[in-house]
């Protein structure tokens, strides 16, 4: 598989909902990014975190935006797909209600529409890849307008705040919360890329990791595939800490399970109960003579159990790790920045170090934010 990130050459502009002409120009855009950070960089709007700027930028709620770029053959592989090959346009995250179009002039086509900030999207663009430059547009509808229309269509629902955050699949705190601003962002908040592949690809890999009483770790890999050749002989193989397993995927099958056993596996513990060793796991999809796709991640070996048996005051609620009951000292995690693309690995390191210094051993990811990164 050949992956090409689409990071450069993007622009953003308002396309409707701006009668006062606050954003009359086309501005350079960063992807991943959002409209607010792009306009701040261009000097068009002030920092919403300062003074009364949050309220002063309420005019941004109603604007529809267009992100655009040109896929240039000099920068990305746009040659026509070979027989049995496919080219996908992949968005890891779009905020939020979008229409995606590809093509030049009258040949422009709509690839699809999105309505969910919390998932990825994939479009087969093979028939539109001809070796020539091609324009890509992503139109983002006002999240406020969409949510209000859904509220009108469905009828109102109970809510903690007046903003209609519960009528759109967007992080709730984008509409403000008791701890954060109401900014209602829009943008391509996760990477965009092209993927050129053939035969089959790994659509999803879910490792289920357990540890038995003898200290043997077990990694059960549940694998979903997308295939272009239903009859091709496929193989999956996995390696972790020098231990390997391999299997054959039956013709036509789009799922497989592979198990790797790791004797004397390094045991992962919550802080205060032991160390936190992690191990590199690599899964490979291949034909007899060609690697097709690969997935890599780090995992820890541990068991987690929740005891809710009856006791003298009702029911227990005891979390045990590796058979050891844990006294939970937990905190609630909210997004580290309203502008999600400003959250770096270094910032996360600092926050988790602060939690560690406060003797925290459990962090709950709050449901009004995002699915946090690994």
Compact summary:
This protein is mainly beta. The chain has helices spanning 35-41, 53-56, 143-154, 345-357; strands at residues 2-5, 11-16, 27-28, 64-71, 85-91, 98-102, 109-114, 121-124, 134-140, 175-177, 180-182, 192-198, 200-211, 217-227, 234-240, 243-249, 255-262, 279-286, 291-299, 304-307, 310-311, 314-315, 318-321, 324-325, 330-333, 362-365.
What does this structure look like?
Helix content is 10%, strand content 39%. It has helices spanning 35-41, 53-56, 143-154, 345-357, and strands at 2-5, 11-16, 27-28, 64-71, 85-91, 98-102, 109-114, 121-124, 134-140, 175-177, 180-182, 192-198, 200-211, 217-227, 234-240, 243-249, 255-262, 279-286, 291-299, 304-307, 310-311, 314-315, 318-321, 324-325, 330-333, 362-365. It has a six-stranded antiparallel β-sheet with strand order 3-2-4-9-6-7, with helices on one face. The mean pLDDT is 95.
Largest sheet, spatial ordering of strands? 3-2-4-9-6-7
> What is the total domain count?
3
Number of continuous helical runs: 4
For the termini, the CA-CA separation is 22 Å
User: Class of the largest domain, according to the CATH hierarchy?
Assistant: Mainly Beta
Quote the beta fraction.
35-45%
Which properties best describe this structure?
single chain, 374 residues, mainly beta, Jelly Rolls, Immunoglobulin-like, six-stranded antiparallel sheet, four-stranded antiparallel sheet
